[in-house]
């Protein structure tokens, strides 16, 4: 295990190391920290601290931070900062060796440390810094070192250059074309970014439209994807393209350094360069969760464009990173995918002989896959290929499809196969408590905040179902593994209203579970409580305080023991006096309602005056301490008996505020999660709420009462709240459709399906939406055979939905659910049912598909009119039903809108489909209600760009070596005379003409009218060296990226002074007001000037617009451009600047700022006759902006901005 490996390595180092200048290695105070003494070149020892923040990644991909002591000179601190960048994935001993070498430490004999020849160091670390200043391996690249790839560690391909890139030989380019053509031939769209054919760092993307994956519309809705969107897999090759042959030769650690993958969704078939870079940027867990929440919100926005994470991207990316390289090795030992995955799970963390791989038959057995999936989902290139030259991108994409389309078949954490009996439309975790803990702690699954804000009624419904089942004594699945701390069960013993229902009607021929006998109950502890000051006082100050800050407690006053007060401890400093927050009183229901068997409305909850601040039933006017007792939330939920687990679940749910209150809190505090409501929500109650939402495996979407178009609301169920309802695996719809087709063809049916009600008591629905409809348990007897019971009469199902009900519903629910029923679509073959009278009993589960969930509410705000049909609208496009088996609803015969049923569309939409498919789609011919493969790639797909079609050209393009070799340290003069268009496209496309993808023309800017500064007197060697390195980085990015994707251009032949750069911004989104203004004025680019100071990179550059002039903020302009042309961005001040930021990242963020529409879009000043901004007005505008926002102006800013002068004078007209 990673932590064990770190402890072992550190233990060896503590025992003693023979590394020059390194002594006294000790374990640090924090997890992952260690310290050591290091003697520098000047002979003085320094105590250095090292910290590995995430030991779970040790020693494969962890980062290591090094800290110098306060008395260390700046040279040592700077060297340690550089070493931190190079210490990634180094063991403890390798880090010590690296520090010794970089600080030029010597041992007692004066010998310097020599690196271990077997150590896994890159070439950039082996170079002598005095020999060559070109040390890119140690420079930070923003946001990831993708386009300026570092040296590959470990074994390299034959033909790799010393810098770690791959020589673009004819054979190399042929293999790329072969691999990508193979992927294209298998039905995927192919895209690329960067210097793919030049052997440089690059990205390859494979994509496929969601509509081609055989996923039902219900699953698409649950997964928040659209059929027209693309599932995209991005491959990153930081050191040049790697084939499957390379992957087979790599160990997993080396493979990850040469090959990474990311999964996402986009409206286009490939990401932009910026999106690809961002996809591989390593984020903190909190930031990653925040972006995922934003993606969930954006995915519901019809206007959202661009690459985003899918609902399952995070676990899939983890699977690809940690397991895919090893699984490839197992595949080539004869195992299919499922065998390789099972072998990995069985042998993870063990020492096994590779020679025995695959000898066990269970790992070699072929996998049984549902025939309902389309061939592209089940294809296996490794097995089906007739040659041994396999396409790595294709194999990777097929692996992703296996886990994306079939995601509900695998645990989201350990990826083990789930039970075949589980039929869920959303993925979840297996029964291992550790998986549930990681699922919750890592933030996988839906965001509870997003669900509350977007679907409050559904959240209310889910909580109500769980509460009813737990209060009824039938809840069997629990949130174990989360280590929830709850009150001990003794805290509820004297609360009669909190007891579980004790009726015998909830299950056929069974009795409810009785509470277990407690031999050693926990006793309450005495205390005195003042309800006015909210203080607890203990009689014996010598005792130890029983609380910790933030603990939750239950307080019961002696005079009103039946009224528990739940509150959070807010202060313990002045013990024996302890302060608590405003107490919360649980809202409960009358226990006399427990015998309500037929769904009658339960009595109102008590006390129900307010859930925000429930008024206690005793007098609180006296400012005095009263006798009381307390229990602490210190009982681990996992250790409770099942009876008491149910008791804890419903008792904590009674503490929750209503969903409307939670939504109001989140609306008022837009950036705060629900967990920030610390004095109102106990962590254990919040954990149970999250478990309820995350464990829901059905797709439930409320049908609004205001559905004026009648596209989703069903007619005939007046007085019932309606929800669109779908359950089952993602391929369940296809299996259902196949059953409909087969039966319809066999029986020559005119109406191949019918609709019928299924009623079940409220306490069953929590399980139904997680397990699906089945008949494993006998609830009401089986007088008419084994199967799922249905009825064409709503009254019959209403009787069953109230049968055995315990009458309890969640007290703070706004829906106040009394009954629930489902409307199912069933294959219309009653003669083949188990029974067709008086009930329809269907044993074939593939013949049943849920469509609607109806809920009878007892809240006037949510309940529709109870009688009459005047408030209902009949849908314009509806499903033709068999007249002999048309179900009757609460107010009339049901009319079901065609839009609400998967695969059927209103007639108004049918005209948009090809003629040969209109008939079935419109619903006029029920014999073929849903097309399994309605996909015309030529008409529905986005056109492939010319640059991506070009890579399939068979001609062998020879790239001269002189064009690939870059000077080790470029200077402005050394680049003069070279081609200005020598980027990727010109190298690859040669003289072939193609339609330009941008109207920008490089090299057309007249530099004679621009400000030209001489190298300033303040130029410092350190700043000059960094600027030269940044300059070379920028040129590499510019050469590798197509101009229309990059969006900026710098002419290297025009750079005479490293402290002044001219950059043109171009190719803005044509829909932006700025782009429209530029087009109207004939402006091809926005000319920027970057000026650097002597303290760079510790101080930010000065970035300003030279031309054209923009409208100022006061004139209605935006884009973060001030009235003087300076950029108003915190990034470019001391407050927001970081020394590790690259100029490429600065340009990217400046471009994003100019493209921003908030608070106002950037606009050009079309009336000002003066063309260029002057540097003087830009300086003053920059300083004004800093003063307004409270940002710090960099020291020596004026000197830097004026190119060495302290103010603008005649010599500096610009």
UniProtKB/TrEMBL annotation:
CDD domains named among the record's database cross-references: UBCc_UBE2Q (cd23802)
PANTHER family: POLY ADP-RIBOSE POLYMERASE FAMILY, MEMBER PARP (PTHR21328)
Molecular-function annotations in GO: NAD+ poly-ADP-ribosyltransferase activity; nucleotidyltransferase activity
Gene3D superfamilies documented for this protein: 3.90.228.10, Ubiquitin Conjugating Enzyme
InterPro entries (alphabetical): ARTD_PARP, Poly(ADP-ribose)pol_cat_dom, UBC, UBQ-conjugating_enzyme/RWD
Name of the protein described by the UniProt record: UBC core domain-containing protein
PROSITE patterns membership: UBC_2
Region (Disordered): 106-169, 285-306, 592-614, 864-929
Ranges where the UBC core domain occurs: 1022-1192
Species whose genome carries this gene: Lophiotrema nucula
Keywords for this protein: Glycosyltransferase, NAD, Nucleotidyltransferase, Transferase
Compositional bias (Basic and acidic residues): 285-294
Pfam families in the record: PARP, UQ_con
Biased composition range(s): Polar residues: 157-169
Keyword Iron-sulfur: no
């Amino acid at each position: 295990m990673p932590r064990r490996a770190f402890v072992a390595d550190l233990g060896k180092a503590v025992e003693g190391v023979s590394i020059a200048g390194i002594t006294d290695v000790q374990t640090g105070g924090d997890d992952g920290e260690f310290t050591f003494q290091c003697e520098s070149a000047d002979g003085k020892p320094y105590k250095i601290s090292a910290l590995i923040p995430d030991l779970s990644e040790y020693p494969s991909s962890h980062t290591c931070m090094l800290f110098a002591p306060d008395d260390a000179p700046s040279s040592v601190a700077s060297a340690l900062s550089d070493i931190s960048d190079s210490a990634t994935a180094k063991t403890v001993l390798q880090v010590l060796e690296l520090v010794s070498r970089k600080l030029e430490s010597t041992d007692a004999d004066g010998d310097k440390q020599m690196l271990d020849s077997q150590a896994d160091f890159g070439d950039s670390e082996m170079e002598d810094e005095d020999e060559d200043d070109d040390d890119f391996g140690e420079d930070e690249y923003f946001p990831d070192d993708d386009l300026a790839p570092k040296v590959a560690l470990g074994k390299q391909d034959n033909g790799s250059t010393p810098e770690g890139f791959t020589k673009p030989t004819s054979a190399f380019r042929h293999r790329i074309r072969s691999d990508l053509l193979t992927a294209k031939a298998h039905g995927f769209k192919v895209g690329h970014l960067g210097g793919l054919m030049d052997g440089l760092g690059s990205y390859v993307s494979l994509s496929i439209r969601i509509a081609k994956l055989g996923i039902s519309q219900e699953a698409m809705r649950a997964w928040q994807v659209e059929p027209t969107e693309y599932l995209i897999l991005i491959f990153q090759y930081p050191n040049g393209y790697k084939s499957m042959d390379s992957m087979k030769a790599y160990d997993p650690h080396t493979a990850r350094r040469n090959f990474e993958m990311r999964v996402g969704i986009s409206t286009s078939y490939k990401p932009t360069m910026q999106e690809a870079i961002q996809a591989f940027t390593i984020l903190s867990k909190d930031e990653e969760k925040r972006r995922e929440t934003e993606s969930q919100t954006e995915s519901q926005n019809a206007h959202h464009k661009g690459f985003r994470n899918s609902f399952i991207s995070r676990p899939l990316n983890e699977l690809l990173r940690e397991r895919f390289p090893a699984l490839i090795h197992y595949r080539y030992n004869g195992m299919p995918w499922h065998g390789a995955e099972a072998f990995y799970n069985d042998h993870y963390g063990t020492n096994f002989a590779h020679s025995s791989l695959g000898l066990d038959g269970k790992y070699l057995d072929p996998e049984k896959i549902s025939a309902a999936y389309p061939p592209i989902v089940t294809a296996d290139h490794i097995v089906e290929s007739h040659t041994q030259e396999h396409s790595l991108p294709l194999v990777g994409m097929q692996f992703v499809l296996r886990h994306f389309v079939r995601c509900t078949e695998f645990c989201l954490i350990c990826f083990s196969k789930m039970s075949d009996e589980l039929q869920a439309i959303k993925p979840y975790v297996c029964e291992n408590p550790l998986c549930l803990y990681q699922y919750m702690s890592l933030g996988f699954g839906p965001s509870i905040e997003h669900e509350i804000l977007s679907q409050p009624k559904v959240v209310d419904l889910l909580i109500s179902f769980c509460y009813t089942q737990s209060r009824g004594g039938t809840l069997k699945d629990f949130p174990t593994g989360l280590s929830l701390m709850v009150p001990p069960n003794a805290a509820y013993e004297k609360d009669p209203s909190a007891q579980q229902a004790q009726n015998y009607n909830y299950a056929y021929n069974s009795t409810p579970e009785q509470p277990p006998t407690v031999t050693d109950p926990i006793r309450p502890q005495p205390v005195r409580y003042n309800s006015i000051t909210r203080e607890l006082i203990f009689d014996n100050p010598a005792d130890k305080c029983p609380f910790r800050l933030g603990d939750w407690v239950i307080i019961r006053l002696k005079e009103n023991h039946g009224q528990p007060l739940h509150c959070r401890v807010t202060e313990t400093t002045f013990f024996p006096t302890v302060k608590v927050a405003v107490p919360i009183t649980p809202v409960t229901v009358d226990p006399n309602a427990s015998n309500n068997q037929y769904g009658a409305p339960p009595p109102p909850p008590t006390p129900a005056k307010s859930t925000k601040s429930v008024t206690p039933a005793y007098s609180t006017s006296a400012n005095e301490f009263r006798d009381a007792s307390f229990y602490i939330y210190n009982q681990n939920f996992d250790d409770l008996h099942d009876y008491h687990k149910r008791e804890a679940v419903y008792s904590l749910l009674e503490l929750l505020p209503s969903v409307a209150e939670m939504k109001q809190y989140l609306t008022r505090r837009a950036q705060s999660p629900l967990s920030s409501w610390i004095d109102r929500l106990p962590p254990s109650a919040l954990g149970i709420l999250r478990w309820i939402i995350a464990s829901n495996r059905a797709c439930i979407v409320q049908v609004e009462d205001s559905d004026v178009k009648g596209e989703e609301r069903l007619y005939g169920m007046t007085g019932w709240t309606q929800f669109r309802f779908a359950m089952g695996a993602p391929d369940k719809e296809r299996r259902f459709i196949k059953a409909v087709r087969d039966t319809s063809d066999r029986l020559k049916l005119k109406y191949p399906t019918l609709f019928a009600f299924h009623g079940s008591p409220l306490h069953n629905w929590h399980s139904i939406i997680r397990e699906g409809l089945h008949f494993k348990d006998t609830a009401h007897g089986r007088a008419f055979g084994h199967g799922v019971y249905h009825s064409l009469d709503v009254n019959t199902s209403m009787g069953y939905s109230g049968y055995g009900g315990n009458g309890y519903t969640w007290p703070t629910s706004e829906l106040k659910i009394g009954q629930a029923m489902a409307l199912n679509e069933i294959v219309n073959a009653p003669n083949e049912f188990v029974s067709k009278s008086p009930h329809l009993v269907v044993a074939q589960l593939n013949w049943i598909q849920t469509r609607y969930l109806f809920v009878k509410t007892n809240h006037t705000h949510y309940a529709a009119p109870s009688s009459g049909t005047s408030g209902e609208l009949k849908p314009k496009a509806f499903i033709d039903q068999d007249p002999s088996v048309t179900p009757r609803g609460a107010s009339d015969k049901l009319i079901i809108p065609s839009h609400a049923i998967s695969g059927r569309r209103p007639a108004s939409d049918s005209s948009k489909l090809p003629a040969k498919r209109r008939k079935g789609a419109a619903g006029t011919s029920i014999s073929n209600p849903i097309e399994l493969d309605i996909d015309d790639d030529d008409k529905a797909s986005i056109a492939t760009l010319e640059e991506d079609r070009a890579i399939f050209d068979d001609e062998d393009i020879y790239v001269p070596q002189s064009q690939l070799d870059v000077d080790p340290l470029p200077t402005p003069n050394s680049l003069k005379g070279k081609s200005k268009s020598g980027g990727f496209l010109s190298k690859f496309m040669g003289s072939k003409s193609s339609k330009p993808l941008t109207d920008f023309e490089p090299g057309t800017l007249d530099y004679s009218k621009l400000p030209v500064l001489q190298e300033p007197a303040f130029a410092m060697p350190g700043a000059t060296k960094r600027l030269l390195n940044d300059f070379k980085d920028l040129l590499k990015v510019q050469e590798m990226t197509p101009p229309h994707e990059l969006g900026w251009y710098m002419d290297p032949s025009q750079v005479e002074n490293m402290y002044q750069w001219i950059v043109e911004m171009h190719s803005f989104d044509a829909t932006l007001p700025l782009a429209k203004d530029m087009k109207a004025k004939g402006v091809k680019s926005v000319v920027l000037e970057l000026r650097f100071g002597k303290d760079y990179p510790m101080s930010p550059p000065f970035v300003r617009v030279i031309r054209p002039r923009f409208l100022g903020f006061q004139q209605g302009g935006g884009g973060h451009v001030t009235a003087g042309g300076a950029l108003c961005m915190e990034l470019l001040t001391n407050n927001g600047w970081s020394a590790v930021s690259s100029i490429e990242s600065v340009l990217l963020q400046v471009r994003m700022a100019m493209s921003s529409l908030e608070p106002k879009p950037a606009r050009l000043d079309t009336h000002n006759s003066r063309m260029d901004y002057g540097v003087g007005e830009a300086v003053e505008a920059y300083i004004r902006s800093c003063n307004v926002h409270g940002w710090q102006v960099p020291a020596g800013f004026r000197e830097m901005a004026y190119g060495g002068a302290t103010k603008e004078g005649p010599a500096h007209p610009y």
